[in-house]
Amino acid sequence: MDPERFFRHPQTAGQIQYEILRASFLERLAARIVAERFHITPGYVHLLRHRFRRGLITFAFRPSDEPGGRRGVLAEVRARIAQMRRERNLSAGQIAEILDDEQIEISVRTVERILREAGFPRLPRRARLLIGETRRRTTVPEVSSRLSLEDGERVQVSSEMAGVFLFAPFVELLGLPGLVAKAHLPGSKPIPALSYFLSFLALKVAGSERLSHTNDYNFDRGMGLFAGLNVLPKCTAMSTYAYSLDAPVIEHLQSGVAREGQRLGLYTGDTINLDFHAVPHWGDESILDKNWVGARGKGIKSALTLFAQDCDSKLILYTEADIRRSEADDQVLRFVDFWKKIAKSVTPTLVFDSRFTSYEQLARLDEQGIRFITLRRRGRSLIRQALAQPASAWTRITIPHEKRKFPRPQVIESFVRLRGYPKPIRQIVMRGNGHEKPTFIITNDAETPVEIIVAQYARRWRIENGIAEAVQFFHLNALSSPILVKVHFDVLLTMIADTLYYLLAKRLRGFEECNATQIFRRFTRGKGDITVTSDEIVVAFPKRAHNPVLRAVDWSKLPDRVSWLGDRRLRFEWR
Length: 575
Prior knowledge:
- By secondary structure, the chain is of the alpha+beta class.
- It has helices spanning 3-8, 13-25, 31-38, 42-53, 75-88, 92-101, 108-117, 128-131, 168-173, 176-183, 193-205, 221-226, 235-243, 247-263, 331-342, 359-367, 380-387, 450-458, 461-472, 484-505, 516-524, 547-551, and strands at residues 154-159, 271-280, 290-293, 298-310, 316-323, 349-351, 371-375, 395-396, 410-416, 425-431, 439-443, 528-533, 536-541, 561-562, 568-574.
- It folds into four domains: 3-53, Arc Repressor Mutant, subunit A (Orthogonal Bundle), CATH 1.10.10; 75-131; 166-346 and 466-520, no CATH class; 353-459, no CATH class.
- Helix 11 crosses helix 20.
Protein backbone atom coordinates (compact mmCIF):
# COMPACT_ATOMS: atom_id res chain seq x y z
CA MET A 1 0.00 0.00 0.00
CA ASP A 2 1.30 3.50 -0.89
CA PRO A 3 1.06 5.53 2.38
CA GLU A 4 1.13 8.88 0.61
CA ARG A 5 -1.68 7.87 -1.76
CA PHE A 6 -3.71 6.51 1.18
CA PHE A 7 -3.78 9.92 2.91
CA ARG A 8 -3.99 12.13 -0.18
CA HIS A 9 -6.72 10.13 -1.92
CA PRO A 10 -9.12 8.64 0.66
CA GLN A 11 -11.23 5.76 -0.64
CA THR A 12 -13.41 4.45 2.19
CA ALA A 13 -16.55 6.30 3.25
CA GLY A 14 -15.33 6.70 6.82
CA GLN A 15 -12.00 8.18 5.74
CA ILE A 16 -13.70 10.58 3.33
CA GLN A 17 -16.05 11.78 6.08
CA TYR A 18 -13.06 12.27 8.39
CA GLU A 19 -11.20 14.41 5.83
CA ILE A 20 -14.32 16.49 5.13
CA LEU A 21 -14.81 17.24 8.83
CA ARG A 22 -11.08 17.88 9.37
CA ALA A 23 -11.09 20.46 6.58
CA SER A 24 -14.25 22.02 8.02
CA PHE A 25 -13.29 22.30 11.69
CA LEU A 26 -9.47 22.27 11.70
CA GLU A 27 -8.70 24.14 8.48
CA ARG A 28 -11.89 26.21 8.87
CA LEU A 29 -12.71 26.06 5.16
CA ALA A 30 -16.11 27.15 3.85
CA ALA A 31 -18.62 24.44 2.92
CA ARG A 32 -18.44 25.44 -0.74
CA ILE A 33 -14.65 24.99 -0.87
CA VAL A 34 -14.81 21.65 0.95
CA ALA A 35 -17.52 20.46 -1.44
CA GLU A 36 -15.40 21.34 -4.47
CA ARG A 37 -12.37 19.54 -3.01
CA PHE A 38 -14.22 16.27 -2.41
CA HIS A 39 -16.68 16.54 -5.34
CA ILE A 40 -19.77 16.64 -3.16
CA THR A 41 -22.54 19.17 -2.51
CA PRO A 42 -22.37 21.90 0.15
CA GLY A 43 -25.55 20.47 1.64
CA TYR A 44 -23.81 17.18 2.36
CA VAL A 45 -21.00 19.09 4.15
CA HIS A 46 -23.56 20.82 6.38
CA LEU A 47 -25.23 17.47 7.10
CA LEU A 48 -21.93 15.88 8.22
CA ARG A 49 -21.18 18.84 10.46
CA HIS A 50 -24.61 18.59 12.03
CA ARG A 51 -24.32 14.84 12.66
CA PHE A 52 -20.75 15.12 14.03
CA ARG A 53 -21.70 17.79 16.58
CA ARG A 54 -24.41 15.46 17.93
CA GLY A 55 -22.12 12.44 18.14
CA LEU A 56 -23.89 10.55 15.36
CA ILE A 57 -20.76 9.77 13.33
CA THR A 58 -18.18 7.10 14.22
CA PHE A 59 -15.16 6.70 11.96
CA ALA A 60 -14.38 3.25 10.56
CA PHE A 61 -12.09 3.61 7.58
CA ARG A 62 -9.42 1.02 8.25
CA PRO A 63 -9.25 -1.38 5.28
CA SER A 64 -9.76 -5.07 5.89
CA ASP A 65 -7.06 -7.65 5.40
CA GLU A 66 -8.76 -8.95 2.23
CA PRO A 67 -8.01 -6.84 -0.87
CA GLY A 68 -11.20 -5.11 -2.00
CA GLY A 69 -12.92 -6.04 1.25
CA ARG A 70 -15.31 -3.89 3.25
CA ARG A 71 -15.77 -3.59 6.97
CA GLY A 72 -18.83 -5.54 8.12
CA VAL A 73 -19.01 -7.87 5.07
CA LEU A 74 -17.49 -11.27 5.74
CA ALA A 75 -14.95 -12.65 3.33
CA GLU A 76 -17.17 -15.73 2.80
CA VAL A 77 -20.09 -13.50 1.73
CA ARG A 78 -17.89 -11.53 -0.66
CA ALA A 79 -16.63 -14.75 -2.18
CA ARG A 80 -20.21 -16.02 -2.54
CA ILE A 81 -21.27 -12.81 -4.30
CA ALA A 82 -18.36 -13.07 -6.75
CA GLN A 83 -19.16 -16.73 -7.38
CA MET A 84 -22.83 -16.06 -8.20
CA ARG A 85 -21.87 -13.37 -10.67
CA ARG A 86 -19.11 -15.44 -12.27
CA GLU A 87 -20.99 -18.74 -12.57
CA ARG A 88 -24.63 -17.65 -12.94
CA ASN A 89 -24.27 -14.11 -14.28
CA LEU A 90 -26.82 -12.82 -11.76
CA SER A 91 -27.52 -9.13 -11.25
CA ALA A 92 -26.86 -7.32 -7.96
CA GLY A 93 -30.61 -7.29 -7.22
CA GLN A 94 -30.93 -11.04 -7.75
CA ILE A 95 -27.90 -11.74 -5.57
CA ALA A 96 -29.31 -9.54 -2.80
CA GLU A 97 -32.63 -11.44 -2.97
CA ILE A 98 -30.88 -14.82 -2.68
CA LEU A 99 -28.82 -13.68 0.27
CA ASP A 100 -31.94 -12.22 1.90
CA ASP A 101 -33.66 -15.61 1.61
CA GLU A 102 -30.62 -17.07 3.42
CA GLN A 103 -31.05 -14.54 6.28
CA ILE A 104 -27.99 -12.52 5.20
CA GLU A 105 -28.94 -8.85 5.31
CA ILE A 106 -27.14 -6.89 2.62
CA SER A 107 -28.28 -4.06 0.40
CA VAL A 108 -28.22 -4.00 -3.38
CA ARG A 109 -25.84 -1.04 -3.28
CA THR A 110 -23.38 -3.01 -1.14
CA VAL A 111 -23.52 -5.93 -3.56
CA GLU A 112 -22.88 -3.56 -6.46
CA ARG A 113 -19.91 -2.06 -4.65
CA ILE A 114 -18.39 -5.47 -3.86
CA LEU A 115 -18.80 -6.60 -7.47
CA ARG A 116 -17.23 -3.40 -8.73
CA GLU A 117 -14.24 -3.75 -6.42
CA ALA A 118 -13.85 -7.39 -7.46
CA GLY A 119 -13.45 -6.24 -11.06
CA PHE A 120 -16.86 -7.24 -12.45
CA PRO A 121 -18.37 -4.74 -14.94
CA ARG A 122 -22.03 -3.63 -14.74
CA LEU A 123 -24.47 -5.88 -16.55
CA PRO A 124 -26.44 -4.37 -19.45
CA ARG A 125 -30.15 -3.77 -18.85
CA ARG A 126 -32.07 -6.95 -19.62
CA ALA A 127 -35.72 -7.96 -19.84
CA ARG A 128 -37.14 -10.15 -17.11
CA LEU A 129 -37.76 -12.95 -19.58
CA LEU A 130 -34.03 -13.02 -20.37
CA ILE A 131 -32.69 -12.90 -16.81
CA GLY A 132 -35.44 -14.97 -15.15
CA GLU A 133 -36.92 -14.10 -11.79
CA THR A 134 -35.35 -15.62 -8.69
CA ARG A 135 -38.35 -14.65 -6.57
CA ARG A 136 -41.94 -15.21 -7.65
CA ARG A 137 -43.65 -11.90 -8.30
CA THR A 138 -47.31 -10.94 -8.72
CA THR A 139 -47.96 -11.50 -12.42
CA VAL A 140 -51.06 -11.77 -14.57
CA PRO A 141 -52.19 -15.42 -14.77
CA GLU A 142 -51.92 -17.17 -18.09
CA VAL A 143 -55.22 -17.21 -19.95
CA SER A 144 -57.02 -20.53 -20.03
CA SER A 145 -60.43 -21.63 -21.27
CA ARG A 146 -60.55 -24.84 -19.24
CA LEU A 147 -63.47 -24.95 -16.83
CA SER A 148 -64.08 -28.58 -15.95
CA LEU A 149 -65.33 -29.32 -12.44
CA GLU A 150 -65.97 -32.72 -10.96
CA ASP A 151 -69.29 -33.52 -9.31
CA GLY A 152 -69.49 -31.78 -5.96
CA GLU A 153 -66.55 -29.47 -6.67
CA ARG A 154 -67.15 -25.72 -6.51
CA VAL A 155 -65.17 -22.59 -7.22
CA GLN A 156 -66.01 -19.20 -5.72
CA VAL A 157 -64.56 -15.92 -6.99
CA SER A 158 -65.19 -12.26 -6.22
CA SER A 159 -65.57 -9.68 -8.94
CA GLU A 160 -65.64 -5.90 -9.08
CA MET A 161 -67.94 -6.15 -12.12
CA ALA A 162 -70.27 -9.02 -11.25
CA GLY A 163 -73.11 -7.09 -12.91
CA VAL A 164 -71.75 -8.08 -16.31
CA PHE A 165 -73.52 -11.44 -15.80
CA LEU A 166 -76.86 -9.60 -15.99
CA PHE A 167 -76.26 -9.52 -19.75
CA ALA A 168 -75.65 -13.27 -20.10
CA PRO A 169 -79.37 -14.10 -20.66
CA PHE A 170 -79.57 -11.41 -23.35
CA VAL A 171 -76.43 -12.70 -25.04
CA GLU A 172 -78.26 -16.02 -25.35
CA LEU A 173 -81.48 -14.26 -26.37
CA LEU A 174 -79.68 -12.57 -29.28
CA GLY A 175 -78.03 -15.87 -30.18
CA LEU A 176 -74.57 -14.31 -30.17
CA PRO A 177 -72.68 -17.60 -29.60
CA GLY A 178 -74.21 -19.06 -32.75
CA LEU A 179 -73.69 -15.85 -34.73
CA VAL A 180 -69.99 -15.79 -33.82
CA ALA A 181 -69.66 -19.37 -35.04
CA LYS A 182 -71.50 -18.65 -38.31
CA ALA A 183 -69.41 -15.53 -38.97
CA HIS A 184 -66.24 -17.64 -38.60
CA LEU A 185 -64.46 -15.26 -36.27
CA PRO A 186 -60.87 -16.40 -35.78
CA GLY A 187 -59.72 -18.01 -32.56
CA SER A 188 -56.79 -19.89 -31.12
CA LYS A 189 -56.26 -23.07 -29.12
CA PRO A 190 -55.99 -21.38 -25.69
CA ILE A 191 -58.63 -18.74 -26.49
CA PRO A 192 -61.62 -19.73 -28.68
CA ALA A 193 -63.25 -17.19 -30.99
CA LEU A 194 -66.30 -16.79 -28.76
CA SER A 195 -64.12 -16.07 -25.72
CA TYR A 196 -62.26 -13.40 -27.64
CA PHE A 197 -65.55 -11.84 -28.74
CA LEU A 198 -67.05 -11.93 -25.24
CA SER A 199 -63.86 -10.40 -23.82
CA PHE A 200 -64.31 -7.40 -26.10
CA LEU A 201 -68.01 -7.27 -25.28
CA ALA A 202 -67.35 -7.40 -21.51
CA LEU A 203 -65.08 -4.36 -21.79
CA LYS A 204 -67.73 -2.55 -23.84
CA VAL A 205 -70.57 -3.08 -21.39
CA ALA A 206 -68.19 -2.08 -18.59
CA GLY A 207 -67.62 1.26 -20.31
CA SER A 208 -63.89 0.65 -20.79
CA GLU A 209 -62.33 3.45 -22.82
CA ARG A 210 -59.54 1.60 -24.62
CA LEU A 211 -58.22 -1.92 -25.02
CA SER A 212 -55.25 -0.93 -22.89
CA HIS A 213 -57.68 -0.53 -19.99
CA THR A 214 -58.17 -4.28 -19.93
CA ASN A 215 -55.28 -4.16 -17.47
CA ASP A 216 -57.78 -2.78 -14.95
CA TYR A 217 -59.43 -6.22 -14.96
CA ASN A 218 -56.33 -8.43 -15.24
CA PHE A 219 -57.03 -10.06 -11.88
CA ASP A 220 -60.84 -9.93 -12.02
CA ARG A 221 -61.77 -13.59 -12.42
CA GLY A 222 -65.44 -12.68 -12.73
CA MET A 223 -64.83 -10.74 -15.93
CA GLY A 224 -62.75 -13.61 -17.26
CA LEU A 225 -65.44 -16.12 -16.35
CA PHE A 226 -68.04 -14.16 -18.32
CA ALA A 227 -65.86 -14.65 -21.40
CA GLY A 228 -65.38 -18.36 -20.64
CA LEU A 229 -61.81 -17.83 -19.40
CA ASN A 230 -60.01 -17.66 -16.09
CA VAL A 231 -58.99 -14.03 -16.78
CA LEU A 232 -59.40 -11.64 -19.69
CA PRO A 233 -56.68 -11.74 -22.36
CA LYS A 234 -53.95 -9.15 -22.09
CA CYS A 235 -54.03 -5.91 -24.05
CA THR A 236 -51.51 -7.07 -26.65
CA ALA A 237 -53.44 -10.26 -27.39
CA MET A 238 -56.73 -8.40 -27.83
CA SER A 239 -55.25 -5.66 -29.99
CA THR A 240 -53.53 -8.23 -32.21
CA TYR A 241 -56.79 -10.16 -32.51
CA ALA A 242 -58.67 -7.07 -33.68
CA TYR A 243 -56.14 -6.61 -36.48
CA SER A 244 -56.73 -10.21 -37.64
CA LEU A 245 -60.37 -9.53 -38.58
CA ASP A 246 -61.49 -8.70 -42.10
CA ALA A 247 -64.50 -6.91 -43.56
CA PRO A 248 -66.57 -9.99 -44.65
CA VAL A 249 -66.40 -11.48 -41.14
CA ILE A 250 -67.59 -8.23 -39.52
CA GLU A 251 -70.35 -7.73 -42.09
CA HIS A 252 -71.55 -11.31 -41.61
CA LEU A 253 -71.70 -10.84 -37.84
CA GLN A 254 -73.53 -7.51 -38.20
CA SER A 255 -76.11 -9.03 -40.53
CA GLY A 256 -76.74 -11.83 -38.05
CA VAL A 257 -77.24 -9.40 -35.16
CA ALA A 258 -79.65 -7.29 -37.23
CA ARG A 259 -81.66 -10.36 -38.25
CA GLU A 260 -81.96 -11.46 -34.63
CA GLY A 261 -83.06 -7.96 -33.64
CA GLN A 262 -85.69 -8.02 -36.38
CA ARG A 263 -86.84 -11.49 -35.28
CA LEU A 264 -87.22 -10.29 -31.68
CA GLY A 265 -89.25 -7.28 -32.83
CA LEU A 266 -86.68 -4.73 -31.67
CA TYR A 267 -87.00 -2.67 -34.85
CA THR A 268 -90.19 -1.35 -36.40
CA GLY A 269 -88.37 -0.36 -39.56
CA ASP A 270 -90.96 2.29 -40.47
CA THR A 271 -88.61 5.24 -40.03
CA ILE A 272 -84.82 4.93 -39.98
CA ASN A 273 -82.47 7.79 -39.13
CA LEU A 274 -79.09 7.92 -40.88
CA ASP A 275 -76.07 9.98 -39.94
CA PHE A 276 -72.30 10.12 -40.33
CA HIS A 277 -69.91 10.51 -37.42
CA ALA A 278 -66.23 11.39 -37.77
CA VAL A 279 -64.08 9.64 -35.16
CA PRO A 280 -60.97 11.82 -34.68
CA HIS A 281 -57.51 10.31 -35.02
CA TRP A 282 -54.53 12.11 -33.52
CA GLY A 283 -51.67 9.99 -34.88
CA ASP A 284 -48.66 11.91 -36.15
CA GLU A 285 -48.63 9.91 -39.39
CA SER A 286 -52.35 9.45 -39.90
CA ILE A 287 -53.33 8.44 -43.43
CA LEU A 288 -57.04 9.01 -42.89
CA ASP A 289 -59.08 11.58 -44.80
CA LYS A 290 -60.01 14.92 -43.35
CA ASN A 291 -63.71 14.98 -42.49
CA TRP A 292 -65.86 17.78 -41.17
CA VAL A 293 -66.42 17.69 -37.40
CA GLY A 294 -69.23 20.03 -36.43
CA ALA A 295 -68.26 20.12 -32.75
CA ARG A 296 -64.87 21.57 -33.71
CA GLY A 297 -66.04 23.59 -36.69
CA LYS A 298 -63.32 22.29 -39.00
CA GLY A 299 -62.12 19.26 -40.92
CA ILE A 300 -59.68 16.97 -39.09
CA LYS A 301 -58.07 13.59 -39.71
CA SER A 302 -60.72 11.06 -38.77
CA ALA A 303 -62.42 7.77 -39.55
CA LEU A 304 -65.79 8.40 -41.19
CA THR A 305 -68.42 6.09 -39.70
CA LEU A 306 -72.10 5.60 -40.51
CA PHE A 307 -74.94 4.79 -38.13
CA ALA A 308 -78.50 3.74 -38.93
CA GLN A 309 -81.02 3.98 -36.10
CA ASP A 310 -84.53 2.67 -35.72
CA CYS A 311 -86.48 5.83 -34.92
CA ASP A 312 -88.97 4.27 -32.51
CA SER A 313 -86.69 2.10 -30.37
CA LYS A 314 -83.64 4.35 -30.89
CA LEU A 315 -81.54 1.22 -31.42
CA ILE A 316 -78.57 1.20 -33.78
CA LEU A 317 -79.24 -1.42 -36.43
CA TYR A 318 -76.43 -0.84 -38.92
CA THR A 319 -72.88 0.51 -38.84
CA GLU A 320 -70.10 1.12 -41.34
CA ALA A 321 -66.60 2.45 -40.81
CA ASP A 322 -64.54 1.64 -43.90
CA ILE A 323 -65.69 4.80 -45.70
CA ARG A 324 -63.60 7.16 -47.77
CA ARG A 325 -64.84 10.70 -48.18
CA SER A 326 -65.33 10.14 -51.93
CA GLU A 327 -67.62 7.19 -51.15
CA ALA A 328 -69.88 8.98 -48.66
CA ASP A 329 -72.70 9.76 -51.13
CA ASP A 330 -73.07 6.07 -52.05
CA GLN A 331 -73.54 4.83 -48.48
CA VAL A 332 -77.30 5.37 -48.48
CA LEU A 333 -77.67 2.85 -51.33
CA ARG A 334 -75.41 0.37 -49.54
CA PHE A 335 -77.64 0.61 -46.49
CA VAL A 336 -80.77 0.05 -48.60
CA ASP A 337 -79.24 -3.14 -50.06
CA PHE A 338 -78.41 -4.30 -46.52
CA TRP A 339 -81.86 -3.56 -45.12
CA LYS A 340 -83.70 -5.28 -47.96
CA LYS A 341 -81.96 -8.51 -46.96
CA ILE A 342 -82.91 -8.06 -43.29
CA ALA A 343 -86.52 -6.84 -43.52
CA LYS A 344 -87.79 -7.91 -46.92
CA SER A 345 -91.42 -6.91 -46.34
CA VAL A 346 -90.81 -3.46 -44.83
CA THR A 347 -90.11 -0.35 -46.90
CA PRO A 348 -88.75 2.27 -44.53
CA THR A 349 -88.70 6.04 -44.66
CA LEU A 350 -85.11 7.24 -44.47
CA VAL A 351 -84.39 10.48 -42.64
CA PHE A 352 -81.04 12.27 -42.93
CA ASP A 353 -79.57 15.74 -43.16
CA SER A 354 -78.76 17.76 -46.28
CA ARG A 355 -75.08 16.73 -46.51
CA PHE A 356 -75.66 13.00 -46.17
CA THR A 357 -75.94 12.28 -49.89
CA SER A 358 -76.40 13.96 -53.29
CA TYR A 359 -79.54 14.73 -55.27
CA GLU A 360 -78.51 12.10 -57.84
CA GLN A 361 -78.63 9.40 -55.15
CA LEU A 362 -82.02 10.72 -54.02
CA ALA A 363 -83.25 10.01 -57.53
CA ARG A 364 -81.99 6.41 -57.28
CA LEU A 365 -83.80 6.00 -53.96
CA ASP A 366 -87.01 7.19 -55.59
CA GLU A 367 -86.55 4.69 -58.43
CA GLN A 368 -86.42 1.87 -55.87
CA GLY A 369 -89.57 3.08 -54.13
CA ILE A 370 -87.70 4.19 -50.98
CA ARG A 371 -89.22 7.21 -49.27
CA PHE A 372 -86.87 9.79 -47.81
CA ILE A 373 -87.05 13.03 -45.84
CA THR A 374 -84.12 15.39 -45.84
CA LEU A 375 -83.19 19.06 -45.99
CA ARG A 376 -82.56 21.14 -49.06
CA ARG A 377 -79.27 22.96 -49.12
CA ARG A 378 -80.37 26.54 -48.75
CA GLY A 379 -78.62 29.57 -50.12
CA ARG A 380 -79.13 33.27 -49.60
CA SER A 381 -81.55 33.59 -52.52
CA LEU A 382 -83.78 30.81 -51.17
CA ILE A 383 -83.87 32.43 -47.76
CA ARG A 384 -84.73 35.84 -49.26
CA GLN A 385 -87.57 34.31 -51.31
CA ALA A 386 -89.01 32.60 -48.23
CA LEU A 387 -88.83 35.72 -46.09
CA ALA A 388 -90.45 37.75 -48.87
CA GLN A 389 -93.58 35.59 -48.86
CA PRO A 390 -96.71 37.38 -47.53
CA ALA A 391 -98.28 36.29 -44.26
CA SER A 392 -101.25 34.84 -46.13
CA ALA A 393 -98.98 32.28 -47.83
CA TRP A 394 -98.03 30.66 -44.54
CA THR A 395 -100.17 27.96 -42.91
CA ARG A 396 -99.93 27.16 -39.22
CA ILE A 397 -99.78 23.48 -38.33
CA THR A 398 -99.66 21.49 -35.08
CA ILE A 399 -96.92 18.88 -34.71
CA PRO A 400 -98.18 15.78 -32.83
CA HIS A 401 -95.48 15.75 -30.18
CA GLU A 402 -96.46 16.67 -26.64
CA LYS A 403 -92.97 17.67 -25.45
CA ARG A 404 -92.06 19.81 -28.44
CA LYS A 405 -90.99 23.34 -27.48
CA PHE A 406 -92.39 24.91 -30.69
CA PRO A 407 -95.41 22.74 -31.54
CA ARG A 408 -97.12 25.18 -33.98
CA PRO A 409 -94.78 26.34 -36.73
CA GLN A 410 -95.85 27.88 -40.05
CA VAL A 411 -95.25 26.16 -43.40
CA ILE A 412 -95.49 26.69 -47.15
CA GLU A 413 -95.86 23.62 -49.38
CA SER A 414 -94.87 23.44 -53.03
CA PHE A 415 -93.24 21.25 -55.67
CA VAL A 416 -89.82 22.34 -56.94
CA ARG A 417 -87.16 21.08 -59.32
CA LEU A 418 -83.63 20.28 -58.16
CA ARG A 419 -80.47 19.87 -60.21
CA GLY A 420 -79.79 16.15 -60.52
CA TYR A 421 -83.31 15.12 -59.55
CA PRO A 422 -85.38 14.27 -62.67
CA LYS A 423 -88.87 15.31 -61.54
CA PRO A 424 -90.58 17.82 -59.23
CA ILE A 425 -90.15 17.07 -55.55
CA ARG A 426 -92.25 18.11 -52.56
CA GLN A 427 -90.79 21.00 -50.57
CA ILE A 428 -91.93 22.23 -47.14
CA VAL A 429 -90.61 25.60 -46.00
CA MET A 430 -91.00 26.01 -42.26
CA ARG A 431 -90.55 28.92 -39.86
CA GLY A 432 -91.42 29.51 -36.22
CA ASN A 433 -89.62 26.33 -35.15
CA GLY A 434 -87.02 28.02 -32.94
CA HIS A 435 -84.54 28.78 -35.72
CA GLU A 436 -83.76 32.23 -37.03
CA LYS A 437 -83.78 31.17 -40.69
CA PRO A 438 -86.47 29.11 -42.44
CA THR A 439 -85.98 25.36 -42.83
CA PHE A 440 -86.40 23.70 -46.26
CA ILE A 441 -87.59 20.08 -46.02
CA ILE A 442 -87.74 17.99 -49.21
CA THR A 443 -89.33 14.55 -49.57
CA ASN A 444 -90.60 12.22 -52.29
CA ASP A 445 -93.59 11.33 -50.08
CA ALA A 446 -96.45 13.30 -51.61
CA GLU A 447 -99.26 11.66 -49.62
CA THR A 448 -98.36 11.85 -45.93
CA PRO A 449 -99.78 14.95 -44.15
CA VAL A 450 -97.33 17.78 -43.66
CA GLU A 451 -97.61 17.53 -39.87
CA ILE A 452 -96.35 13.93 -39.95
CA ILE A 453 -93.51 14.77 -42.35
CA VAL A 454 -92.28 17.58 -40.10
CA ALA A 455 -92.59 15.37 -37.01
CA GLN A 456 -90.62 12.56 -38.67
CA TYR A 457 -87.77 14.85 -39.57
CA ALA A 458 -87.85 16.50 -36.15
CA ARG A 459 -87.13 13.13 -34.54
CA ARG A 460 -83.80 12.93 -36.37
CA TRP A 461 -82.22 14.38 -33.21
CA ARG A 462 -82.58 10.90 -31.71
CA ILE A 463 -79.68 9.54 -33.73
CA GLU A 464 -77.55 12.51 -32.73
CA ASN A 465 -78.36 11.76 -29.09
CA GLY A 466 -77.57 8.09 -29.68
CA ILE A 467 -74.17 8.93 -31.14
CA ALA A 468 -73.51 11.33 -28.27
CA GLU A 469 -74.24 8.51 -25.80
CA ALA A 470 -71.94 6.17 -27.72
CA VAL A 471 -69.19 8.78 -27.45
CA GLN A 472 -69.80 9.39 -23.74
CA PHE A 473 -70.24 5.85 -22.37
CA PHE A 474 -68.98 3.49 -25.08
CA HIS A 475 -66.08 5.88 -25.88
CA LEU A 476 -66.72 5.87 -29.60
CA ASN A 477 -64.16 8.64 -30.13
CA ALA A 478 -61.35 6.73 -28.39
CA LEU A 479 -59.85 5.74 -31.73
CA SER A 480 -56.41 4.20 -31.34
CA SER A 481 -55.81 2.92 -34.85
CA PRO A 482 -56.09 4.20 -38.43
CA ILE A 483 -56.95 0.66 -39.62
CA LEU A 484 -60.60 1.06 -40.54
CA VAL A 485 -61.48 -2.63 -40.26
CA LYS A 486 -60.48 -2.48 -36.59
CA VAL A 487 -62.55 0.68 -36.19
CA HIS A 488 -65.57 -1.06 -37.72
CA PHE A 489 -65.25 -3.94 -35.26
CA ASP A 490 -65.24 -1.48 -32.37
CA VAL A 491 -68.28 0.32 -33.79
CA LEU A 492 -70.10 -2.99 -34.23
CA LEU A 493 -69.36 -3.89 -30.60
CA THR A 494 -70.86 -0.53 -29.63
CA MET A 495 -74.02 -1.45 -31.54
CA ILE A 496 -74.25 -4.86 -29.80
CA ALA A 497 -73.54 -3.45 -26.32
CA ASP A 498 -76.18 -0.75 -26.89
CA THR A 499 -78.70 -3.48 -27.79
CA LEU A 500 -77.86 -5.45 -24.64
CA TYR A 501 -78.40 -2.39 -22.45
CA TYR A 502 -81.71 -1.74 -24.23
CA LEU A 503 -82.91 -5.31 -23.58
CA LEU A 504 -82.00 -5.03 -19.90
CA ALA A 505 -83.52 -1.58 -19.45
CA LYS A 506 -86.85 -2.65 -20.93
CA ARG A 507 -87.20 -5.19 -18.11
CA LEU A 508 -86.35 -2.79 -15.29
CA ARG A 509 -89.60 -1.29 -14.07
CA GLY A 510 -89.35 2.49 -13.98
CA PHE A 511 -86.04 2.54 -15.88
CA GLU A 512 -87.27 1.52 -19.33
CA GLU A 513 -86.15 4.75 -21.01
CA CYS A 514 -82.80 5.12 -19.21
CA ASN A 515 -79.62 5.16 -21.25
CA ALA A 516 -76.59 2.91 -20.81
CA THR A 517 -74.80 5.34 -18.49
CA GLN A 518 -77.67 5.34 -16.00
CA ILE A 519 -78.17 1.56 -16.14
CA PHE A 520 -74.46 0.97 -15.62
CA ARG A 521 -74.26 3.29 -12.62
CA ARG A 522 -77.31 1.83 -10.86
CA PHE A 523 -77.23 -1.86 -11.80
CA THR A 524 -74.22 -3.14 -13.74
CA ARG A 525 -71.35 -1.65 -11.78
CA GLY A 526 -70.64 -3.22 -8.42
CA LYS A 527 -69.09 -6.10 -6.55
CA GLY A 528 -70.45 -9.60 -6.29
CA ASP A 529 -69.54 -13.20 -5.50
CA ILE A 530 -69.72 -15.84 -8.21
CA THR A 531 -69.97 -19.53 -7.32
CA VAL A 532 -69.44 -22.13 -10.05
CA THR A 533 -70.39 -25.76 -9.58
CA SER A 534 -70.54 -28.61 -12.05
CA ASP A 535 -74.05 -27.65 -13.17
CA GLU A 536 -74.78 -24.12 -11.89
CA ILE A 537 -73.45 -20.55 -11.76
CA VAL A 538 -74.73 -18.44 -8.88
CA VAL A 539 -74.09 -14.69 -8.89
CA ALA A 540 -74.73 -13.12 -5.47
CA PHE A 541 -75.03 -9.34 -5.19
CA PRO A 542 -74.57 -7.42 -1.93
CA LYS A 543 -77.20 -5.02 -0.61
CA ARG A 544 -77.80 -2.06 -2.91
CA ALA A 545 -80.61 0.46 -3.23
CA HIS A 546 -81.75 -0.75 -6.66
CA ASN A 547 -81.65 -4.50 -5.96
CA PRO A 548 -85.45 -4.68 -5.61
CA VAL A 549 -85.77 -3.56 -9.24
CA LEU A 550 -83.50 -6.38 -10.39
CA ARG A 551 -85.26 -8.86 -8.14
CA ALA A 552 -88.60 -7.92 -9.74
CA VAL A 553 -87.42 -8.91 -13.22
CA ASP A 554 -89.06 -12.11 -14.41
CA TRP A 555 -85.78 -13.91 -15.11
CA SER A 556 -87.68 -17.18 -15.63
CA LYS A 557 -88.86 -15.90 -19.02
CA LEU A 558 -85.27 -15.41 -20.17
CA PRO A 559 -82.71 -18.06 -21.10
CA ASP A 560 -81.23 -19.48 -17.89
CA ARG A 561 -78.49 -21.63 -19.43
CA VAL A 562 -75.07 -20.26 -20.39
CA SER A 563 -74.06 -22.27 -23.42
CA TRP A 564 -70.42 -21.14 -23.50
CA LEU A 565 -69.90 -22.12 -19.83
CA GLY A 566 -70.75 -25.78 -20.12
CA ASP A 567 -74.48 -25.08 -20.47
CA ARG A 568 -74.63 -24.38 -16.74
CA ARG A 569 -77.74 -22.87 -15.21
CA LEU A 570 -77.42 -19.19 -14.27
CA ARG A 571 -79.06 -17.98 -11.08
CA PHE A 572 -79.00 -14.59 -9.33
CA GLU A 573 -79.16 -13.96 -5.60
CA TRP A 574 -79.58 -10.70 -3.68
CA ARG A 575 -78.38 -10.58 -0.10
